[in-house]
Amino acid sequence: MNERSMQTFARSHPELIARLQVIVLAIQIAATVSLGVGAVAALVLILTSV
Fold first, then answer.
1. Strands, E, within 1-50: which ranges?
2. Which pTM was predicted?
3. Residues 17, 9: Cα–Cα separation, whole Å
């Protein structure tokens, strides 16, 4: 049972790490996109106000 549990953990651990990396990338992409959208909105407001 111990060997099986260790093998299961060894197999599932890389998947957990990959999922965490994907989540971090998604957060970074979302932050970048939100910043880009905010910058575009600010430019549009500035251009339309002028």
1. none
2. 0.55
3. 12
